[in-house]
Structures are given as C-alpha cells and as structure tokens.
Specification:
43% of the residues lie in helices and 8% in strands. By secondary structure, the protein is mainly alpha-helical. It has a 3-stranded antiparallel beta sheet with strand order 1-3-2. The longest helix is centred in the last third of the chain and has 14 residues.
Length: 108
Amino acid sequence: MLKELDLAGALARMKDGSEKICMLVPVSKDTTLEELMQAKGFALTDTKKEEPKPKAEKPKADKPKRNIDTGKILALHKAGWTASAIASEIGCSTPTVTKYINAEKEKE
C-alpha cells in the first residue's frame, strides 16, 4: 500500500529515517539522473509495521507438592543409610535427600 506525499513530506520523513520513501517517476531505459532528480511524486511505503507475534507460553504443569519428611531423612542418615537408599524409601530423588542433609549440616 502506498500513500502519496509531497516533496516536503517526503523530505521530512526521509530525514527522520523511520519510514521508507519511494519516488513515483516513470522510468525507461532512457531516463536520465537529471529527470529523476526533478521528480515531483513521492510515496510512503506500507505504513503498517507488523508487530512481532508474542510467543505462546507453554502452560506449566502444576506439580503436586509433596510433603517430604525431613525428620525421617535425617534419622535414616544418622542411622547410616545412604542417600540413594533414603531416596528410595521416601520416594524422592537422591539430590533432594542430599539437599536436606546438607541443609541440616549447615544449621549445625
């Protein structure tokens, strides 16, 4: 879509640099630079700038919060159980067990 402009409007928008300006001049293989310089027709190219489409957010799966028995983890650890054995007993991951054990060590 083109919007026709006069010379002053074209120059103002060219100076701004935010929009593209086209010259409306019939051109043939014999058109000279001087003829192009004397052009009186200008047009503003499509003024609608497409907004980038927002990325669709993936719905987060709500993980049910488990109630981890910290006391049981610590008791089993003090009884000599390994972190992986405790994790199997509690029903959580080994890194989770390790996190609770390390947190308790930091408190002491």
